[in-house]
Amino acid sequence: MLVLENVDAHYGKSHVLHGVSIEVRAGEVVGLLGRNGVGKTTTLKAIMGMARRTGGRITFEGRDLQGVPPHGLAGLGIAWVPEERRIFRLLTVLENLRTGLDRPGMTPARREALLEKVYAYFPILRERRNQAGGTLSGGEQQMLALARAIANPPRLLLIDEPSLGLSPIMIAEAYKALRQFQADGMTILLVEQNVHGALRFAQRAYILKQGEIVAHGTGEGLLADPDMLKHYLGSK
Fold it and tell me: Is the pTM of this model over 0.90?
């Protein structure tokens, strides 16, 4: 579904990605792991056309994404949940959700059906639907960010650090939702520092170090190699 071939990316004169190659197959959950500052978020931004790609090729379902703007990617079925969540803090939960649903061709009946599906994933958002996004807890804001991304269901979901700053209970809730997304047919590329949680969830994973892929394998296989995880990720 998604293929990155020898992708290079720069921020100004800083060369961040060095020949990154990743493949995500339809229906998979693929993890992208690494320490801080190694290029994980830049990889997602390169896919979204928000980082300057200086080499290589990115294709989605066989289509070259060179020159496709972020809003064009949404039209192709790609959604992105950034690390900072970026909900609209002054808008209500419902207004946040409708930012992805109030579009040409969306009938009121279809919009209500999609909202009901979102509320089935995240019942707390129904209770909070008239509450300003900025007044939600951190965990509820993460739920809102996930819900907004999948309100008009994408085929590919890019997620950056879904467990960042959350309590163990809320992390479990976030991963419960992600498992349901996958069960409902969504493909997921997951950037995460919660190494063990990500590897227990992902079918496969890639490990980045200084902008290069240094390891790749199944989630189970990488979990079974604690020395390698400690070497590249500092994980015990």
Answer: yes
